[in-house]
Predict the structure.
Amino acid sequence: MSDEVGARALLRRAESFLATADMARAYTLAAFGAVFSAFLITRLSGQVTYITIITALVIIGVAILVARRAEISLLRLVPSTLVLLMGWMLLSAIWSTESGLTVQAWLASAGLAVIAVVIGHVRDTLQTVRAVGDVLRVLLSLSLAIEVFSGILIDTPIRFLGILGNLAIGGPVQGIFGTRNLLGFVALLAIITFVVEWRTSSVRPGVAAFSVVLAGGLAVFSDSPTVAVLAVAMAAATGALAIVRHTDRRYRTAVQSALGAIVVIGLLIAYAARHPIIRLLNAGSDFSTRAELWNTVLDYVRLRPITGWGWYGPWATDEFPFFGLNFITDDTHLSALNAYFDVTLQTGWVGLVLFAGMAGIALVRSWLVASERRSVLYAWTPLILVALLVDSMFESFTLIGFGWLLLVLCVVRAGLSRSWRGAPPTSSIGLPPGSPSGVST
């Protein structure tokens, strides 16, 4: 009897510990740190180590949700759009060319989705921004330090990290992220986060200034052609959101409609003037490579337009159709270099509609919240979504790793802030019972 009582007391203490704000903060930092450092971890310790870390985070995350079950609504736990997309991805194992690999890829996507759902429910937007900012400050600083060491101090590439040591000649650099495009993408996400931190006075002015300069410098030195496109898109989105936020409520709907029309017209103009734009960005070779690959991908999509070839995430280059795609293009691609083409290739038009619907609904919800709330903090979610969706036209980062984690997190946050399924719970997200609402920990 005493053993049973002792076990129950130990279980209660464990639940109390898991439900604390300190545990939520530590979990969030560990999750972002691990997922953003995926390339570095796998190069230093191997893929098994990274998988073990993610598995542990999933188990701990589920335990945290169980410990906080009294303050979390089961109906609002996971957005229905995410459930539908994940369900279709898993169902694709039935017609996949290699069902075992599809199940493995689905588990990898589901694991990161679980982590994102946990963070979305135990941390509010400010706490999430602070966690992302703290992690990216460290990782970008580490990237710069390694690039300085390789490119200036020893003037020798660090091959196992993919660092070429080009900092002294102005780039391109890739830091600890493996490729220049991935570093540029991370740097743009970091700039959004750091500016929101600065505007909300979440960090000291000196730290904010250092962070923005660090991210901006690495974005420039990455010499990634997608960075310029992303920067223009983010500037346009930020300006549009600022206009809406400062517009009288009576005219907001008209302004939103006008901005939507401008976006559509702008996309049509950009498509019509794509060749001069490519020459201006000096990205002709990159775009020609993508154009050839996309045309080949569309040929394979026509063979299975509705269902696709099965969910794989990153391409399994030894499996069909990826082997065929690389053979035809005479290259070794690990993705379609476009998230929308990748989703269509692997899960068909049904998957693309579900993916676009999930991201689109989240963007609309978060945009409306950001346009109605006074704090600039609420601009973080729609701006991150815009960055993810624009980058998805040139890379498939949004479907894997930190891109997928951030996408699911933004979908969860948008659903919690504005949902048809009722008002959010009254308890403060990320705070222990009895804590004052809105206090960042």
User: Anything to note?
Assistant: The chain has 17 helices and no strands. The radius of gyration is 22 Å.
